[in-house]
Amino acid sequence: MSDATTPSTPSLMSRLIDTGAHQKLLAFASLILLLIGFSVASPNFMQMSNMIAILQATSVNGVLAVAATLVIITGGIDLSVGTLMTFCAVIAGVVLTYAGMPLIFGVIAAIGAGAFCGLCSGAFVAKMKIPPFIATLGMMLILKGLSLVISGTRPIYFNDTPGFDLISRGSLIGKVIPGLQIPNGVLILFLVAITASYVLNRTVLGRYTFALGSNEESVRLSGVNTDRWKMAIYALAGGICGIAGLLIASRLNSAQPALGLGYELEAIAAVVIGGTSLSGGRGSIMGTLIGALIMAVLINGLRVLSVAQEWQTVVTGAIIILAVYADMVRRKSA
What we know:
Shape: globular
Radius of gyration: 21 Å
Largest sheet: 2 strands, antiparallel
Order of helices and strands: HHHHHHEHHHHHEHHH
Strand content: under 5%
């Protein structure tokens, strides 16, 4: 009789830890608790206009968080997502307002500029072997300066571009279902999230995204051109930042060249809250969306309660620290 033993079946908790599903459930529970808490604290919080404002704010930060998720899963980091968003908005302003070209060309230019800048960041990391933190920090400063130079340090307005404001503030759903005025920005957020989720879970690019974050050296030794795939991931993330640039420019009806700094922190916080590991190899778009909603609800709730802006910043910083610490604990337990 053989003394070999069969491996024990993993417990439900260990499977949840392995898949990160427990983190999504925890994040979702936190979101529900925040909604209930702010509703009790202020009767104005649950008003329809305020809910729409939360969704509108989530649309921009959520799209940026989706872009950050792709990079973080590879084990990297992108500190330039906020200023890249602004740069893409400025490029759209140059094409539409200064050059007077049709709307579609402005959309293509913004997304194309984002993809190109993302490709450059990817080349710095993959080809030049610069650490992602330093490479994207440098790109952040470059893009901030270029936005100010190209715009002449002045906002670029889109008053002469018909339909531009509808990109974010219009409501296709409201035309189909009268009374349900969900902004187009929210619809675009979900379309971006669904597309990114499909790429991560159903394509070769998605498989290599997770593989690079899990063990890049093993992938390289297996004969895969890791530099090419990493640059492709950064380029895709940059293109998504271009979409965020269009959303925020449409919402403000202008490209504000000094805007952007700070957005990357909220995006990274949303990613980590949603269960994506900063060490790479694990993450999901669904978790990121929940994390983005948590950030939007928290900031909006503090404003409704008339909490000073400086304390809102303090809370955001504390959440980032707690999110990173939770990721460290989660990795140890896994």
